[in-house]
Here is the input.
Amino acid sequence: MAIEVRMPKLGMTMTEGKIVRWMKKEGEFAAAGEALYTVENAKVNIDVEAPEEGTLIKISAEEGETVPVGQVVAYLGSAGEKIRADQPADSQTAESEALPEPESLCGEEEEKNIVRATPAARALAKKQGIDMKLITGSGIDGRIKRVDVQQYGQKGVEQTACRDVCQAACEVEPAYVDMVPSSIRAAGAQRMAASFTQVPHFYLSTQVDVSKLQQLLRQARGRAGEGTVRPTFTDVLAWFTARVIKEHPLVNSQWIKGGKIRQFTNVNFGIAADTPEGLVVPVIRNADSIGFSQITAERSRLVHAARNQSLTAEDLSDGTFTLSNLGMFDIDVFQGILNAPQAALLTVGAVNSVLKKEGGRIVEQPIMKLCLSCDHRVLDGAAGARFLKRLKAVMEEPMKLLDQNLF
Here is the structure.
């Protein structure tokens, strides 16, 4: 008898998962423990392994489909095996995806009347009163997916509107498009809404002369050997900021249950990264104690993994402070929402040139604006200001902080 492969629960709060891709096709053999498919949950993409060895005889959930935890997504069995008619039904899917209509006959006639569709497609078709026999499915073996029902329904609305207006078939441009956010974007939206409404924010801003930091970056790039990662301005900011944070432990803290403040001994430095699926914050661990080249290599690895959707849960966990840099988008200054439960977040804007009088002549000075978001339960204005003042002083005179670990 075929083995049911169900959507696993990959986190304490996970209720559903999105099938990103299948590593195996129907008819292919999978060894026990071999990656079978990839699931996207609230934070990362995770490969799910085959529970036992066998041939993938049927895929019940398409790539891109979101299904609840516990629902059957595939069947494993022997080569050539078919799903039996008396195979136990999925407890979370009332209808079989290949349930024949009541008036279906036997043999070839029964096969013709079978409507293959996902549960979501059936529910939407029933709600909109659409006869599913009229829809051409785009899924495996012609299975009807929810998007097929949506497109069929939209086409019917467009045709009706055209008949009413011009008495002829015509294409109608929809006024808007409703988008379903990715799991990562949806989870981020929930976290940011909770943080902004439940945490008392305040913001402190300053501007920094970064001419000496730019010189250090040029030196670091000049010393980087062939085949090594090219340092970025974010790497320099991370190295200096992590060490100043160490001097101001309240900045490296969290407000926890019971009305307590938890101060961390190590700085696990999060760097906000933009991805097609939404914002993620991978973490450079112990950024206050590792060398500059290590920060550069780890930042490069994490950003690459974020853009390729291959971050692990460990890459995203245990952050104590976050840096968000939008300077590459020509943003001068912005106020960030705290990455709760962290007590502080630093935002960085673009470097702009301003004119300054120096020694009787006018010179250009590269200026960058910083904004510190603070949780007022942990940091008051003076504590946040002392940290920002120290960070500004170190960035403008970096030799005060340089040691053998840098470059």
In short: The two ends are 62 Å apart (CA to CA). The first helix runs from residue 107 to 113. DSSP finds eight helices and 18 strands in the chain.
